[in-house]
């Protein structure tokens, strides 16, 4: 087994057990309301750390301008759609579809 698969299994193991303790009803472990409130900011923070470099630096691989970048246009369209609709799966599919169409036609 090479290092990639060993690393993948190790990260999967760590992620599973970190989540297991928080969501399992068999483990008597409860977070305080203050800790729960602080942890509620982690998902938006991680997502922002992932999409900002893609949207603002993704245009560098294509020959177009930043304003006509499929990354930027699809990102803005996805934000607008997410404000109108609260279904996360529909927003993700919509954003990916817009990006795919823009990559084909731009």
Overview of this structure, please?
The protein is mostly helical. It folds into 2 domains: 1-30; 41-105, no CATH class. Helices cover 73% and strands 0% of the residues. Helix 4 runs antiparallel to helix 5. It has 5 helices and no strands.
Distance between the amino and carboxyl termini: 42 Å
Sheet/helix structural class:
mainly alpha
Order of helices and strands: HHHHH
Count of β-strands:
0
Report the sheet-strand fraction.
under 5%
Largest sheet: none
Secondary-structure blueprint of this entry?
Blueprint: H1 3-23, H2 33-39, H3 42-57, H4 70-84, H5 88-105
Helix pairs in contact: 4-5
Keywords:
106 residues, mainly alpha, 73% helix, 0% strand
Quick take:
With 106 residues, the protein is an all-alpha fold. The protein has helices at 3-23, 33-39, 42-57, 70-84, 88-105. It contains 5 helices and no strands.
